[in-house]
Amino acid sequence: MSDKPKYDSDQVAHALKVGRAKARMDQQALADAAGISKDSVARYETGLNTPRLDTAFDMAVALGISLDELVCLPAPGLRGEAE
User: What counts of helices (H) and strands (E) characterise the chain?
Assistant: First the structure.
């Protein structure tokens, strides 16, 4: 079993809601900026679905946050990785 950091749909859902509120975007604005449907944003925000990496990246860019922030991963120096 891998010990790499993982993200789950509940973490992403929360981070999306917080990020969208901070960016003062509605679901449609985020969807347009990320090139996805409003329904997809809604499913990600409810935790029903988890976005693919490329979609998560596009949403993070649209929100002005890092991908790590969106998927709630600790900063690289705090992940316990060997340097």
Answer: 5, 0
Q: Does residue 21 contact residue 28 with C-beta atoms inside 8 Å?
A: no
What DSSP state is assigned to residue 24?
T
Q: Please write down the HEC assignment for all residues of 40-73.
A: HHHHHHHCCCCCCHHHHHHHHHHHCCCHHHHCCC
Per-residue pLDDT, 77: 59
Q: Which residue, chain included where needed, has tokens 């917080």?
A: 18
Q: Report, in angstroms and rounded to the nearest whole number, the Rg of the chain calculated over CA atoms.
A: 13
Reported pTM: 0.79
40-55 pLDDT per residue, tens: 999 999 999 989 999 9
